[in-house]
Amino acid sequence: MTMIIAVRGIGMAPDGWQVRVTAWLNHAAVVIQQSVGFIPGWLSALVVFAGLATLVWKALRARRTQAGQIVSATEPDTAEQVAAGSTTPACHDNAKESK
């Protein structure tokens, strides 16, 4: 909505691409408003807050992953190598040593 107001501002030229974009944005806003107008306000607020909570949850999980709290599933644990009786390093261990 902010984009619509910004493009429709006083300094806008009376013709050209800005007018076409403004007309398209107005049309899109009206179509969306008419198509979701039957949804109660409390339900749409619930959907917005659920989406926000999902984004926050995913951001926190990504931050935890970067901090090293979640072990990568691609690298085997050393306990798994010992339990399997592996005495030689795996191929990705050799790649780490060659760097």
3D architecture notes:
This protein is mostly helical. It has 2 domains: 1-38; 40-99. 66% of the residues lie in helices and 0% in strands. The protein has helices at residues 2-7, 17-35, 41-66, 78-83, 91-98. The mean pLDDT is 76.
The total strand number stands at: 0
Strand residues, percent: under 5%
Specify the structural class. Answer: mainly alpha
Series of secondary-structure elements, N-terminal to C-terminal:
HHHHH
Overall geometric form: elongated
The domain count comes to 2
Number of helices: 5
Chain-averaged pLDDT: 76
- Give the helix level as a range of percent: 55-70%
Task: Please give the largest β-sheet.
Answer: none
Radius of gyration: 27 Å
Could you tell me how far the N terminus lies from the C terminus, measured between alpha carbons in angstroms?
Answer: 51 Å
Helix and strand layout, with pairings?
Layout: H1 2-7, H2 17-35, H3 41-66, H4 78-83, H5 91-98
Q: Summary?
A:
Keywords: Membrane, Transmembrane, Transmembrane helix. Residues 76-99 are annotated as: Disordered. The protein is mainly alpha-helical and 99 residues long.
Primary descriptors:
mainly alpha; 66% helix; 0% strand
